[in-house]
Specification:
This protein is an alpha+beta fold. 17% of the residues lie in helices and 39% in strands. The radius of gyration is 15 Å and the shape is globular. Bound molecules: copper (II) ion. Copper (II) ion binds next to loops.
C-alpha cells in the first residue's frame, strides 16, 4: 500500500489538516488542560484504531472509546475521491497530541476537520477527555447524505 502513496497528496493532506486547525473557535470551547492530559498519559499503552474512508461510507461506522486513555486513530482514504473527517464536537471533547503521516507532523491542540486525499493516510493521536456521543461526517458534496457519517462514543 505504501508504494501507492503520492508524496504530494500526503503533503497536501497534512497542509489541509494544518489549515483545519480552527482559529474561528475560541480555545475555551476546547479542553482547557489538554497539555496535562497529553503529558500524564502512558503512551506505551496507546490503542491503535483505523477508520477507513470510501465512497460513500466510513468503516467502522461506530467507534467506542474510553475516557482518559491514549489512542491513535488512523484515517485511511481507500476511495477514489478526497474525503473529510469532520467532527467539531469530537475535537472539542479530546486532548489532541498531534496529527501525522510519513511526511511530517502537525502539532496543533485545536482541530475541526481533517481532509484525507484519495490514497492518503493521516494518524490522529489523542485522549478522549469527555464522555458522550459525537458525530463525524464528510463535508464534500452530498457525501454525508449518501452515507458518509458515523458516531464516536466515549464511555
Ligand atoms: Cu466523503
Amino acid at each position: 500500500m505504501i508504494s501507492q502513496l503520492r508524496p504530494l497528496a500526503l503533503l497536501a493532506a497534512l497542509l489541509a489538516a494544518l489549515l483545519a486547525a480552527a482559529p474561528l473557535h475560541a480555545s475555551e470551547d476546547y479542553i482547557a488542560n489538554a497539555a496535562e492530559f497529553i503529558k500524564a498519559a502512558d503512551w506505551k499503552t496507546m490503542e491503535s484504531l483505523t477508520l477507513d474512508m470510501e465512497e460513500f461510507r466510513f468503516i467502522p461506522g461506530e467507534i467506542r472509546l474510553k475516557e482518559g486513555l491514549p489512542y491513535k486513530l488512523e484515517l485511511r482514504n481507500n476511495g477514489e475521491k478526497d474525503h473529510t473527517f469532520t467532527a467539531p464536537e469530537f475535537f472539542r471533547a479530546i486532548a489532541t497530541r498531534k496529527v501525522q503521516n510519513k511526511d511530517g507532523e502537525v502539532k496543533a491542540p485545536y482541530l475541526h476537520a481533517l481532509l484525507v486525499r484519495n490514497g492518503g493516510r493521516l494518524e490522529l493521536f489523542f485522549i478522549p477527555a469527555k464522555k458522550g456521543s459525537f458525530p463525524f461526517y464528510c463535508t464534500f458534496e452530498d457525501f454525508r447524505q449518501k452515507g458518509m457519517e458515523g458516531k464516536i462514543t466515549v464511555e
